[in-house]
Amino acid sequence: MSHEWRTQEVVLIEEKRGAYEIQASKWAEALDQLTKYSKLVRAEQGRGGILRGIITVGTYVRFYYFVLNEQQMKDYPAV
Fold this sequence. Notes:
The chain is of the alpha+beta class and 79 residues long. The chain contains 1 helix and 4 strands, in the order βαβββ.
């Protein structure tokens, strides 16, 4: 199978200690770091594939996906 036909999926995880669960600044810091890593991965891999991200702070988790044309991570809609 040629490389063009394969779909790549990348998941990046950013974690912070539980003591910061309620601090909005730590969530923002983690999202900023995740966005920077996502941009690096996208630059290395090009436009193909799916890029997702997870942020954990203590026992809380948020899920994201990378929007290429906006160059940022977006929250997954609540299900």
